[in-house]
Specification:
Blueprint (H helix, E strand, L loop, with lengths): L6 H8 L1 H20 L6 E5 L5 E3 H17 L2 E6 L6 E2 L6 E9 L11 E7 L10 E9 L3 E7 L2 E7 L4 E5 L10 E4 L8 H12 L3 E2 L5 H11 L1 E5 L12 H14 L3 E3 L19 E4 L1 H10 L1
Parallel strand pairs: 3-5, 11-12, 11-13
Antiparallel strand pairs: 1-2, 3-4, 5-6, 6-7, 7-8, 8-9, 9-10, 13-15, 14-15
Helix pairs in contact: 1-2, 2-3
The structure holds 6-O-phosphono-alpha-D-fructofuranose (P6P).
6-O-phosphono-alpha-D-fructofuranose binds next to loops.
């Protein structure tokens, strides 16, 4: 049996510039996965979006900020749980966006949760197309880490003491098989509802688990589309541009797919505020291009 390729070895050969930061993210993920069984329940605070924070949200956010500050690698950070840009190290070379615990409403029901990082060299805020990397971790059933750079998308599996390569240079299967859409069906705009009905007639299967990381990961492996669309009464949708949509838009592009806010690539959105949301449609290029024509 071929020797397992560790995350450290793979990074040193393929993505040396980001090796230190992504290795540190791997260590952070190990600790968070160990803490999740004990960090449960609601904190008595709200985040900038007015959402009740969970103990795990706050702890993960504070832990990640502390660890990245210690690394000396990160200059500033935009976190979903923080109102303003956080300064970490003047000498840091990277600027990072963070969703510390994506899908944390799934904790109670032990469904998928994850952490999402966007990595920039340019100062934040800036367009998502300036990302040089993006990473997400899924904390179960088996912990996996997916990272993307201009060299492609790679997935690693945590095998008890370190991350080992599971799949390298992942490309979206074509055609896709799945669709997962957030919001209430009655609040989808009619044109979008018609588009989804078409996919159902073509045999696309519904997969929706309530966490962007988990639902995105299914589309990455099986192809199809995930969306948290513009909704009647909430045209901007729900997902945060910096903490959620930009990193995933970067990853899907490196996997041969595409994203849109309904008009153009999410990576081209000119940010107005660090906490802004965006309608998010992401998946196979053909599906996204057809959708843009309809919307
Ligand atoms: P709903 C999690 O709170 C999140 O931001 C994304 O991870 C997920 O895709 C979405 O919200 C789920 O929203 O409305 O289905 O609970």
């Amino acid at each position: 049996m071929a020797e397992a390729i560790t995350l450290e070895k793979y990074l040193k050969i393929n993505d040396k510039e980001l090796a230190g930061l992504i290795m540190r993210i791997g260590k952070i993920a190990e600790r968070i996965s160990k803490e999740l069984p004990y960090r449960r329940g609601k904190a008595n605070t709200q985040n900038v979006f007015g959402e009740t924070q969970l103990v795990a949200d706050k702890w993960a956010d504070e832990f990640i900020i502390k660890e990245l500050r210690k690394s000396g690698l990160v200059k500033t950070m935009i976190s979903e749980e923080q109102e303003d840009v956080v300064c970490l190290n003047d000498k840091g070379v990277f600027n990072v966006t963070l969703d510390p615990l994506d899908g944390s409403s799934n904790i109670e029901s032990n469904n998928l949760v994850g952490t999402i990082f966007g990595i920039y060299k340019k100062d934040l805020p800036t367009k998502g197309k300036h990302q040089i990397g993006a990473v997400y971790i899924l904390y179960g059933p088996v912990m996996t880490l997916v990272y993307a750079t201009k060299n492609g998308v790679n997935e690693f599996l945590y095998a008890g003491k370190e991350f080992v390569l599971k799949e390298k240079n992942i490309k979206l299967p074509e055609p896709g098989k799945l669709y997962g859409i957030g919001g209430l069906r009655k609040d989808w705009f009619p044109k979008f509802r018609k588009y989804i009905k078409e996919l159902e007639i073509q045999g696309y299967k519904l997969r929706y688990g309530g966490s962007f990381v988990g639902d995105f990961n299914q589309v990455l492996h099986y192809g199809g589309i995930f969306a948290y669309p513009s909704l009647v009464g909430k045209p901007i949708g729900k997902l945060r541009l910096f903490a959620e949509s930009n990193p995933m838009a970067f990853i899907i592009k490196q996997a041969g797919g595409a994203s849109t806010n309904g008009k153009y690539s999410i990576l081209d959105i000119n940010p107005e505020s660090i906490n802004q949301r965006t309608p998010t449609y992401i998946g196979n290029k053909k599906l996204i291009n057809n959708l843009k024509k309809i919307l």
